[in-house]
Structure formats: C-alpha cells, structure tokens
From TrEMBL:
SUPFAM superfamilies: Dodecin-like. It comes from the Bacteria. This is Transporter. It holds the Pfam family Dodecin. InterPro entries: Dodecin, Dodecin-like, Dodecin-like_sf. It comes from Desulfoprunum benzoelyticum.
Length: 70
C-alpha cells in the first residue's frame, strides 16, 4: 500500500455576503496556487462590525493538500 503525506495550512477568507462565501473564497483562492487540495475544515467564524452593523464575514479554514517531495 502506498503512503502519502499531507500538509495543512490555515487561511482566513472574507466576504461581505456570508460565512459560506468567506470559506469558499479561502479555498478557491488557495486552489489557484496549490495543487491536489484534499480537505477543508472550517474552524472559526467571526464578523467585522462597524457602527453596530456587520460589514464582513470571516472564516478561518484549514486546508490540506498532498505534500510532494522535490
């Protein structure tokens, strides 16, 4: 059986619409420069507030991808 190693990084995605969009932005942006993404885990959600109103949503996302030895 072949073995694999995966690296995990943490990203923060933002959106002015929703937490779903914030998490999606993090993953889709990472996919532009990382290969073989495997799993995304949302760990923390928060909001930025200005004058008592929510102005943006933030999602902290851990993303794993296959580690390739050079």
């Amino acid at each position: 059986m072949a073995t694999s190693v995966y690296k995990i990084i943490e990203l923060v995605g933002t959106s002015d619409k929703s937490w779903d969009d914030a998490a999606r932005n993090a993953v889709e942006t990472a996919a532009k420069s990382l290969e073989d993404l495997r799993i995304a885990e949302v760990g923390k959600l928060d909001m930025q507030i200005d004058n008592g109103k929510v102005v943006s949503y933030r999602a902290r996302v851990k993303v794993s991808f296959k580690y390739k030895k050079d």
